[in-house]
Each structure stands twice: as structure tokens, then as C-alpha cells.
Design goal:
single chain, 219 residues, seven-stranded mixed β-sheet
Length: 219
């Protein structure tokens, strides 16, 4: 095996990367800070800072107008994608917590994009299964319950338009995907990765971005 990149991401190099990416705006930065201050024990559930500009870039690259987000937490990723949407674009954001998503609602209002985000508080599978069955989704971002990821995938793929994109977070899951005896969320991610790699409907790449990010394009 030839390992092409042995660069160690130090704190200094990570900051260098952030400094050469599009900066977070004041609303995004405020939301990140409030999340860490209010939920220090689970703030790691928030998408990494570099993923905000990346998600916005992918929205623009695909020309997405109809986005589905599975797992919203405090709303940073939805905010980043909504800001990249055209005025008539929409995100359906799925989450089960009124407490966490209240922070997102506030930030979306501050940023002037609240009208582009429809928050649905319910189990995500219920929300997905209630959507029209025909292909109509341009892009999806999945960052939720790792043990249900295959189920989310199977609801999203048939509803994704040809050329549409699914972005899945945490697909390296802190390195635990290497553990063949993994249980719980780690086992769920391992099974999901195998499922995605074998799916003939999609072209997928797993990238070592943050905690692992898989990009999947519908054929």
C-alpha cells in the first residue's frame, strides 16, 4: 500500500487551513461560540468549522435548491448551506430536539435565512418516509444517529435526483471503524461504509476530512 499523504495536522497547520478557507461570518462564529458555551459536553456533535464553507461550496457546485439535512443539532451546518442557497432554495432540517435547534432558529433569523429552512421535529425516518417518493432532492447532509445511517440512506437515495449528492459525516468515527468487534455507533458506521461502497446506484468517496466525510453522487 502506498500512503500518499503523511502530513500530520498539528494545531498550527489546522489554523493555517482555516486561515486559507472562507472565514465564518459573525452569525456563524457566534453560533459556534454559543454551542460550546451552552453544551460543552456534546459540542463535538457540531460540524467542524471547515465543514461550513465546504458544505456551502457543495451547494453552489451542485446548484442545489432542495436540500435535506438529517441531524441539525444547533444549526451550524443548516445555516452554512442555507446561506449558499438561492432565494427560492429550501432545506428540510430533521432533528428531535427543540432545545438544541432553538439555537439554530435564532441564528437563522439573525442571518436572514430562516425562510429557507423548514425544521421538522420528529424522528428523521418518519420525516423522510413522508416525503414524495419520486427523485426530487438535490443534496442531503447526514449527521445523525449512526446506527440508523443505512436506513436514512435507503430513504434518501431513491428520492435523490440523478447527479444529486449525499454528504455523510463521521465516517471514520474517531478511528473505531478499524475495530472488527466494534459495537453501537462504531459498528453502525462500519456497516454503513460497507453498504455505501457496495451500492451500484451511487459513486462514493470517503475522505479524511475532520472525522471522515463521504461524498456520494447518484449515477
Amino acid at each position: 500500500m502506498s500512503k500518499g499523504n503523511s502530513t500530520k495536522i498539528t494545531d498550527e497547520l489546522y489554523q493555517y487551513m482555516l486561515d486559507h478557507n472562507p472565514p465564518l461570518d459573525s452569525v456563524q462564529r457566534g453560533l459556534v461560540a454559543r454551542t460550546y458555551a451552552s453544551f460543552p459536553d456534546v459540542a463535538g456533535m457540531q460540524s467542524a468549522e471547515e465543514q461550513g464553507p465546504l458544505l456551502a461550496f457543495l451547494v453552489r457546485l451542485t446548484g442545489a435548491r432542495h436540500i435535506v439535512e438529517v441531524g441539525t443539532f444547533t444549526g451550524f451546518s443548516a445555516l452554512s448551506m442555507a446561506q449558499a442557497l438561492p432565494a427560492d432554495g429550501r432545506i428540510i432540517a430533521c432533528d428531535v430536539s427543540e432545545e438544541w435547534t432553538a439555537y439554530g432558529r435564532q441564528a437563522w433569523e439573525e442571518a436572514g435565512v430562516a425562510d429557507r429552512i423548514e425544521l421538522r421535529i420528529a424522528p428523521a425516518l418518519e420525516t423522510l418516509r413522508a416525503m414524495p417518493a419520486e427523485p426530487h432532492i438535490d443534496m442531503a447532509y447526514v449527521d445523525a444517529d449512526k446506527e440508523r445511517q443505512i436506513s436514512y440512506w435507503e430513504e434518501l437515495v431513491p428520492r435523490l435526483r440523478p447527479g444529486g449528492l449525499i454528504v455523510t459525516d463521521n465516517t471514520l468515527y474517531h478511528g473505531t471503524v478499524l475495530d472488527e468487534s466494534a459495537t453501537g455507533s462504531a459498528a453502525g458506521v462500519r456497516a454503513f461504509n460497507d453498504h455505501v461502497a457496495a451500492d451500484p446506484r451511487m459513486d462514493s468517496v470517503l475522505l479524511a476530512i475532520s472525522d471522515g466525510l463521504t461524498l456520494s453522487r447518484k449515477r
